[in-house]
Specification:
Shape of chain B: globular
Shape of chain A: globular
Number of helices of chain A: 15
CATH topology of the largest domain in chain B: Peroxisomal Thiolase, Chain A, domain 1
Number of domains of chain B: 2
Helix content of chain A: 25-40%
Number of helices of chain B: 12
Oligomer: heterodimer
Radius of gyration of chain A: 20 Å
CATH architecture of the largest domain in chain B: 3-Layer(aba) Sandwich
CATH class of the largest domain in chain B: Alpha Beta
Radius of gyration of chain B: 23 Å
Largest sheet of chain A: 9 strands, mixed
């Protein structure tokens, strides 16, 4: 029986670039921006890093393939650099690679860096991209909002919810995230919005309006990880450690077998259960203090609250509207502004989420700091489409707690 | 359109028996690729089959039909005779007002036929009332009065004389005279001169679907068969560099045909579009801004298309022989989580399986020539599901649990290379017409 990752690896330092339309920056500029913050935070020399993982998803838009772009950007000294891509979970996948390297003893100190430079397409929304020779001949001409929008119809049908109630809860999610992003200088969007803004915004893919969708941005985030022992030897106190890292990947059941009703993420339900077990969490609604989830669209965040077993099934609308997930609620969700305000530079998003938990747990989150330092925090990424996706979950917390 | 007409025609028929396919059109999507071959693949017909394209004349379908009848008479049937036309006309031309797109299909063979072939006559005259030269987009036409007086009014009566000389059937016996002609009163004039009853002249359907070119004689024949009574004599004429005249007699088997859409049903499942700008845009007659999302290269990997032709063109999925689960696409490992058996799947056709919408959206972000783009998850009645593009869809016809039928449609057109790629789309299900009383 595997013992899991709990408390085997500590976060030594983290960094996150400003996210946004970085018209004046290349991807390597963003990598350096995130890395310089992380290496200063870690208090080590670059040459102490023994292995690195680079997350990029739509690499043809910016750096191209392989680990070379990271090695060149940082002039890493011929260490192993692996590039990972796993849809929108890519960033958390890089983190998993670095954490596993340290846990296995293959490296004492490892780097995970995610970057995406998406704003060189000439149009809004995610870049059009290849889907594979055969897939492109039979997949519908679908977009990300169009595939996630379908959750709404299925969720309404399953739980017998009125369209206007669901739409109101979805709007609350976006308003809440903008309230939070307003207190975060690194966010792409820092403006506050109103319920009316959301409900009256132009339709993108029914029932998702413009303000139900996250933006598309450039950005980078990174983590330097090591063993708790080395972190201590480097003088670190109040060490933040990894409690769980899980990944669940669709095997075609949702897409091809009639057992899935389209209203939830089968992967998230599996990954979250495994993560709670690995972290030793029995009652997530009570034990988790802070969550950063993959709010690519407002409806995704809504159903994810149930798939993480924090809201009861069919109960997310009530929790959302009750303010349970607001910044001053019981379990704040996207206290940094989320994808909604940061946009979604795919490779960077997972580590941007971990970065926020890391700051909050150290009391370093500035104007948006929770009064009581969070004990357990969870991040969640979802890549692909509701009917076929990858879901990554991480849980972090204070070492030894 | 040809595939859809053929599917409708083959309702209740054993596709495995089709021995030959002929496809008539002057607007074939490919100049060098057997277009009839695409139809064979989409219909999942057997491979040991003869198939050919017939083109270059408005009477390609009637000439093909005569050949098909001769083949069937000689024991080489059944022949699937399909005709389709996608007419492209210059903006603001008279032809634009007169033409339409359409298709029809007939299964020609022996046995319990719905219409018995009696006789035919043909004339071939190099009478060029219009033409479309190689590499040219549009037709060039001559004066209508000359076409009427020197063309129809001389060539058709001569052929009809030959026809009536070869049979005991008299012009007065004709119950249905199906002759497409966009010129007013020409068909009626020819019928009168020949001695046919005035009531025999059939509506040319131009008001409801336009003149569908090479397909139109067969469209009018199909329409006549929907209305004919056993014993009715039906005379069909195709005109183009001469003419073909074919005489049939409707039989009692008409009443035994399985319910199908037919001309009536297809016209009833219409989605009316009255916006002329959309017409221009859909037919690529105006340079429109399609947006950068439309810029992606649509090259088709031919080897992959060929390898997966049963799935992509034939819409064949898999059925697990161990647990019975239907699935699309067919795969090495059964998708049923309680089975997951390896190498147990056999071919299972999905094209004619009723389906329902599980989830859908109307997408305004993704590129579509007709936004918003509807697509979603459709669940097949007997099992299996697929996320697929919708067609002919709108807010009134699509909802969760709405019934859908699969239709063979253009998936992409690669304008850099001139390649039309086909696949299937889900359309709101039209109600099949009742079997004829």
């Amino acid at each position: 029986m595997a013992t899991g990752i709990r408390d085997k690896v500590a976060i030594l330092g983290m960094g996150c670039s400003k996210f946004g339309e970085r018209w004046d920056k290349e991807a390597d500029d963003l990598m350096v921006e995130a890395f310089e913050e992380a290496i200063a935070d870690a208090g080590i020399e670059k040459n102490q890093i023994e292995a690195a993982w680079l997350a990029t998803a739509i690499e043809e838009q910016h750096v191209g393939k392989s680990g070379v772009p990271l090695a060149v950007a940082l002039r890493l000294p011929y260490i192993p650099v692996t590039r990972v891509e796993n849809y929108c979970a890519s960033g958390t996948e890089a983190f998993r690679g670095a954490v596993y390297a340290v846990a296995s003893g293959a490296a004492d100190i490892a780097l995970a860096l995610g970057v995406e430079k998406l704003k060189d397409t000439g149009y809004g929304g995610l870049p059009q991209r290849g889907r594979g020779a055969l897939n492109s001949m039979f997949w519908p001409n679908l977009s990300a909002p169009g595939s996630f929008a379908q959750l709404a119809a299925a969720y309404r049908a399953k739980h017998n919810k009125k369209p206007e109630d669901l739409k109101r809860a979805m709007a609350h999610i976006s308003v809440k995230s903008h309230d939070n992003g307003n207190k975060n200088a690194k966010a792409h969007l820092t403006n506050k919005i109103t319920m009316e803004n959301v409900l009256q915004s132009p339709m993108i893919a029914e029932p998702l309006g413009l303000f139900d969708c996250c933006g598309v941005s450039d950005g980078s985030a990174c983590a330097i990880v090591t063993t708790p022992e080395i972190a201590k030897s480097l003088g670190k106190k109040d060490i933040i450690s990894v409690k769980a890292l899980q990944l669940a990947v669709s095997n075609g059941t949702e897409a091809q077998h009639n057992s899935w009703d389209g209203s939830y993420f089968a992967t998230t339900r599996v990954a979250s259960k495994r993560a709670y077990k690995e972290a030793g969490i029995e009652k997530p609604r009570e034990e988790i203090d802070l969550i950063e989830v993959h709010d690519c669209f407002s409806v995704t965040e809504l159903v994810t609250m149930e798939d993480l077993y924090i809201s009861p099934e069919g109960g997310a609308i009530k929790d959302v509207l009750d303010g349970f997930y607001d910044a001053d609620g019981k379990v704040p969700c996207q206290i940094d502004g989320g994808l909604k305000c940061f946009g979604h530079p795919i490779g960077a998003s997972g580590m941007r989420m971990i970065y926020e938990l890391y700051l909050q747990m150290q009391g370093k989150a500035g104007p948006r700091q929770r009064k009581e330092l969070p004990r357990y925090g969870l991040t969640h990424n979802l890549g692909g489409f509701p009917h076929q996706n990858v879901c990554s979950i991480s849980v972090i917390g204070k070492y030894g707690d | 359109m040809a595939v859809e007409a053929a599917r409708d025609c083959l309702t209740g028929q054993d596709r495995g028996k089709v021995a030959s396919v002929a496809f008539a059109s002057t607007t074939l999507p490919f100049e060098d690729r057997l277009n009839a071959g695409i139809i064979c693949e989409a219909l999942n017909l057997k491979a040991n089959i003869n198939a050919q394209d017939l083109t270059a004349s408005q009477r390609a379908a009637t000439s093909g039909l005569i050949t098909a009848l001769q083949m069937a008479r000689g024991g080489a049937g059944p022949v699937l005779m399909v005709a389709a036309e996608k007419r492209r006309t210059r903006t603001a031309s008279p032809l634009e007002l007169q033409t339409g797109d359409g298709a029809a299909a007939l299964l020609v063979g022996s046995g319990p036929v719905v219409a018995k072939f009696i006789a035919s006559a043909s004339r071939t005259v190099d009478f060029v009332d219009h033409f479309r030269g190689e590499g040219f987009e549009f037709d060039y036409t001559w004066e209508e009065r000359w076409i009427r007086d020197e063309g129809y009014n001389k060539i058709v009566p001569a052929a009809l004389d030959d026809l009536f000389k070869s049979t005991d059937v008299k012009p007065a016996d004709i119950a249905h005279f199906a002759m497409p002609c966009v010129l007013a009163r020409v068909a009626a004039g020819i019928a009168k001169k020949a001695g046919m009853p005035e009531t025999a002249v059939r509506d040319n359907l131009h008001a409801v679907c336009g003149e569908t070119g090479a397909a139109h004689p067969l469209v009018m024949l199909a329409d006549a068969l929907e209305k004919a009574k056993p014993g009715d004599k039906i005379l069909v004429v195709g005109f183009g560099q001469g003419c073909d005249a074919l005489l049939f007699e409707a039989t009692e088997n008409l009443a035994k045909l399985s319910p199908r859409l037919g001309v009536k049903g297809h016209l009833a499942r219409r989605k009316e579009e009255t916006n002329y700008n959309k017409y221009l845009s859909f037919n690529d007659l105006v340079a429109i801004e399609r947006g950068m999302r439309a810029d992606v290269d649509k090259a088709t990997p031919l080897s992959s298309l060929y390898r997966n032709r049963r799935m992509l063109t034939g819409f064949i999925g898999g059925e697990c022989k161990k647990c019975g689960t239907l699935q699309f696409p067919k795969s090495n490992v059964c998708v049923n989580p309680n089975c997951n058996a390896f190498h147990t799947q056999e071919d299972a056709p999905f094209a004619d399986t009723p389906a329902k919408v599980q989830s859908y959206t109307a997408d305004r972000l993704t590129y579509s020539p007709d936004p918003p783009h509807y697509y979603g998850m459709v669940v097949f009645e007997q099992g299996g599901r697929t996320m697929i593009d919708f067609t002919d869809a709108d807010a009134e016809t699509v909802d969760v649990a709405a019934p859908m039928r699969m239709m063979f449609r253009i998936k992409e057109y690669d304008s850099n290379r001139g390649f039309t790629r086909y696949y299937w789309k889900a359309a709101p299900a039209g109600k099949p017409a009742q079997a004829k009383a």
